[in-house]
Write a structure and sequence with these properties.
This protein is an alpha/beta fold. The protein has 2 domains: about 200 residues, Aspartate Aminotransferase, domain 1 (Alpha-Beta Complex); about 230 residues, Type I PLP-dependent aspartate aminotransferase-like (Major domain) (Aspartate Aminotransferase, domain 2). About 40% of the residues lie in helices and about 10% in strands. It is built from 16 helices and 10 strands. The strands form 2 sheets. A 7-stranded mixed sheet has the order 1-7-6-5-4-2-3, with helices on both faces. Strands 8-9-10 form a 3-stranded antiparallel sheet. It is globular and about 65 Å long.
Length: about 450
């Protein structure tokens, strides 16, 4: 088995792309991480011990372990493995320190975490919140979205995106997506701008950035604000750098999952950051205890205990994203034959992508997609999933029927009917991944042709 000696490794993007290429023993486009403290931590690890990048090394940075037997299920996202054992130890130590001191809600770790994350992301301000949902509500308030406004967003997202708009007394306007990116199509966004439009809320679905430069152009032309829902895209270059604000989630299922609900607003704008801080904690002046500066606000600040865990785990973030990029690349290689014969469509490999979810599109349509999932589950014993099972405009509530009953989004609907998601998590072992690839091949053979 190969090892990967690289004594001159410095951790810059050229070095990392070389390493990725070596690990794959093949051609890979350059990996372009943002220059940050967390990347330096990865660089340190790899400089110290580059052999750990070898998937076959006993202390590999990739999850190792025996190949699961065919009868043994490969779960989609096993809860007990959201943090690796090593990460669980770090998290427990961080939490125990806070617990002993009793500063469980507010405390110094919040600011320290915010500063460290700002450094990681290369943006001036991070405001830690109680969840990604809180961060969306706070960011929308901070950019001035309020009662009677409209916010343009996609229909394929977690409910938090639309709920944040409702929470501001505003109305979501659903716009179709670019079929390759699965994210807002800027031309259609522009066509949907009306007199009440206040903001654009793109979602970086599955960890791939929406076309932010084009959306910012549209916003400039019409005097709109842009808030990025980057809950699935932490670590991707440029998040929060070109828009009014970006929103992150650290819930345990995310790339940078912590030990409970948490999120953040990220912004370059001093005033917007101050407003977000105020609104996320009862409208209080952050420097004067229990003295209001804003009319009202929420109890939506990040807990000190979660922030302490975040600080402990932040140096692992780049490694986690790196693992995901590696596994995504491996899925693409493993499924290339299915793409070549036209059975599936695969996402293009982009190294600067959080690879929060790995989607495969079944070209034969919804019935074939559902049969493949069923075959993978029953015969292959591999769990897959669909994100998200119900599109926003197809939710069956009186509100949704009344407002979106007539809405048709052909591309979003087509993607939704044909996509399935394969297991891709921090602790997915290469042996498990091989089982997934084999199960997909067998299911396609059995159902599509
Ligand atoms: C796209 C998207 N937006 C918003 C959220 C909400 O984040 P949280 O669960 O931290 O409230 C999530 C995560 O669940 C998400 O995936």
């Amino acid at each position: 088995m190969r090892t990967f000696p690289n004594p001159s490794f410095t951790g810059d993007s050229a070095d990392i792309s070389r390493l990725v290429a070596e690990v794959r023993c093949g051609e890979v486009p350059p990996y372009t991480p943002s220059p940050s403290r967390a990347n330096r931590a990865l660089a340190d690890l790899l400089t110290r011990d580059p052999g750990r990048l070898d998937p076959a090394a006993p202390d590999s940075v990739f999850a190792t372990g025996p190949r699961p037997e065919t009868g043994q299920p490969v779960p989609f996202l096993p809860r007990e493995r959201l943090l690796t054992r090593d990460e669980q130890r770090t998290a427990a130590e961080c939490f125990a320190r806070v617990l002993a001191g009793g500063e469980l809600t507010s405390g110094p770790a919040v600011t320290e975490f915010e500063d460290a994350l700002a450094d990681f992301l290369g943006v001036p301000h991070v405001v830690g919140t109680g969840s990604g949902t809180d961060a969306l509500v706070v960011a929308l308030e901070a950019v001035g979205v309020g009662h009677g406004d409209e916010v343009i967003m996609p229909a394929n997202s977690f409910a938090a995106t639309e709920n944040a708009v409702w929470a501001r007394g505003a109305t979501p306007v659903l716009v179709d997506v670019d079929p390759d990116r699965h994210t807002l199509d800027p031309a259609l966004v522009e066509a949907a701008v009306g007199p009440r439009t206040r903001a654009i809320l793109p979602v970086h679905l599955y960890g791939r950035l929406a076309d932010v430069p084009a959306l910012v152009q549209v916003a400039r032309r019409h005097g709109l604000r842009v808030v990025e829902d980057a809950c699935q895209a932490i670590g991707v270059t440029g998040v929060g750098k070109y828009t009014d604000a970006a929103v992150l989630s650290f819930n345990p299922y995310k790339n940078f999952g912590l030990t409970g609900k948490a999120g953040a607003v990220v912004t370059r704008d001093d005033e917007l950051a101050a407003r977000a801080r105020r609104f996320s904690y009862h409208g209080f002046d952050p420097k004067r205890k229990n003295v209001k500066e804003g009319g009202y606000g929420l109890n939506a600040r990040m807990d000190n205990s979660t922030a302490a865990v975040g600080l402990g785990l932040l140096p692992r973030l780049t490694l986690r994203n790196y693992r995901r990029a590696f596994l995504a690349r491996r899925y693409l290689d493993g499924c290339a034959e299915l793409a070549a014969n036209g059975s599936v469509l695969l996402p293009a490999f982009e190294p600067d992508h959080a690879w929060h979810l790995f989607g495969v599109r079944v070209t034969a349509g919804r019935a074939a997609r559902d049969s493949i999932r069923a075959h993978m589950r029953s015969t292959g014993r591999v769990e897959t999933d669909i994100y998200y099972p119900v599109l926003t405009h197809r939710q069956q509530t009186p509100l949704h029927r009344e407002l979106f009953g007539q809405v048709v989004l052909p591309r979003t609907e087509h993607l939704h009917e044909t996509v399935l998601h394969l297991p891709l998590h921090n602790d997915l072992s290469l042996a498990e991944q091989d089982r997934v690839i084999e199960a997909l091949h067998a299911a396609v053979r059995a159902t599509v042709r």
